[in-house]
Amino acid sequence: MESSVINDPDLAIGTAKELVETGCKTILSDWAIDIPKSADLPQLIKLTCKQLELTPDDISDKVKAAETIKKVLGSLAALTQGIAELRN
To answer: Which of 21, 52, 64, 80 is most buried, most CB within 10 Å of its CB?
Structure first.
């Protein structure tokens, strides 16, 4: 993936998307969560974050730096959405 950034950016983006998809599917499979066959990357991210309790709603306002953590988690979702859009 790294070597493709300059010479074949389409391949680099596609590989990044596949890496994230594979990571999500592995986590969900390890937790014995059914993965819909039609699930796209944003859906996989949403399912995975929910299972790992990494959604902004899972972070208590009493947690130190709660707002910052919520922003980071929101940015993660936006980043994966952007990767999927670039790939398509």
So the answer is: 80
